[in-house]
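Lecture 7, part 2: worked example. A protein chain together with calcium ion.
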Amino acid sequence: MKNKFRLLILIIFFMSLFLSTCGVQKSTTLKNYEGRVYYEIFVRSFNDSDGDGIGDLKGVTQKLDYLKDLGVQGLWLMPICASPSYHGYDVSDYYSINSDYGTMEDLQNLIKEAHKIGINVTMDLVLNHTSTQNKWFIDAATDANSKYRNYYIWSDETTDVNSKSSMGTIQWYLKNGFYYNAVFWDQMPDLNYDNAEVRVEAKKIAKFYLDKGIDGFRLDAAMHIYNADDNKNVAWWTEFNSYVKSLNKNATIVGEVWANTDTITKYIGALDSTFDFPLANEIVKGEQTGSFAMLSLFLDSIYTTYVDKNILGQDSPFITNHDQNRAMNYFEDMGQAKQAAAILLSLPGTPYIYYGEEIGMKGSGKDEYKREPMLWSSDASKNTSWEADLENDADITSVSVEEKDKNSLLSFYKKMISIRNNNDALKYGSYVAFATENDSIFSIKRELNGKSTYVYVSSADSEQVENLDIASAKIIYSSAGRKGKIKAKAGQITLKPNEILVIVK
Ligand code: CA
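Predicted complex, written out as structure tokens:
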């Protein structure tokens, strides 16, 4: 009896050891994030609920059915706090919703309705700087003895006010006899994170929105808090993130670290995830050139780093975002857009789609053009009208038109997202390099618990051969209309011209 008891204790001990080892493979905080497809929304351009031509939060709520149908499981709302600018990246009051977008109640209702259908809602948090119209700054600038004076960074006799920022921008601006620091724009004075009171304010803002039910934050300009000082930035975000987790262990923090892979990886851990800007660049270049050699090499290189650091699932890939020319401006046709989508949706981590990307909207040049009204309908009265539609043709590129066409980009996005949502290897699997050196083919293998999924994308106008390391596989999707099984001959399969192929073992 005693021996049996010992044996039981031993088994429990080893089981718990085994489980805890499994546990450290991935941050548990990512349960609410990894593998999902997220969707970035510029609220002003998305959907107008009250007929004033400006998108609003109720308008987003009205389109939850569309987002669910698309297969999206998470939203990133671009800035929704009170702001004097059209874009909102200069906050005048962190505790109010932009009156163009609605009320706090509208936000809470959006969160409630999204949660009912399994969609997370995260929001942009712009903490590096405020608007010059923020009462903190107005007070600080008019009264050198203000309690808010030290919330910002002011010149003293040692400051070279002609010095440029680490980004090469003008960074000192004169106000009432003193210079304040603002590295992005004179209307965006930088907050002083050496001041402990500012750090307390930042946490207070996060708590405020977590209490409203928000699932996490996208951190704007995460590497600029302490200009170009990664160590201090990482220390601050570690402090911030652990505070957020103390309030909600499932809340997620994803940061904008617009830098190379070395720098990005420094921030993962402090942040739950970061956007993969270098990867986005390689996806676009691969499609533009029709050669995936560099993309494949790049994936091998970054994923080796991510696996070594145990952060593979914490990547947030995307194609382009609101600060960049739209993906469709780089592509020749919808075919290339479909291929880029297939690549994006086959990658580890949490892929982001920028609103309108799924219908092939264009936009380039000044920022407003990259953020045009979402084209719901060829009937212009059904879209937001805050800005005149300049680059897109709603008769071709709109939801109402593409929904009726099973070969449209929108239909393809739905198909690929649905494949990902129903395939755990694509959502959570490891990355296995297995490709040949055929530059015209992108291929990726994702593996989980002995199950493998392969995604092939061919940019060639002729048939091509590519490796398959198993004898045969089941076809999940073929843009060439193939069904059933595919068999390897001498370890290779033949791809049809320009084929997108998804197969599983
Ligand atoms: Ca409106």
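Confidence is low (pLDDT under 50) at residues 12-28. The pocket of calcium ion is lined by residues 48-50, 52, 54, 56 (CB under 6 Å). Keep this in mind for problem set question 3.
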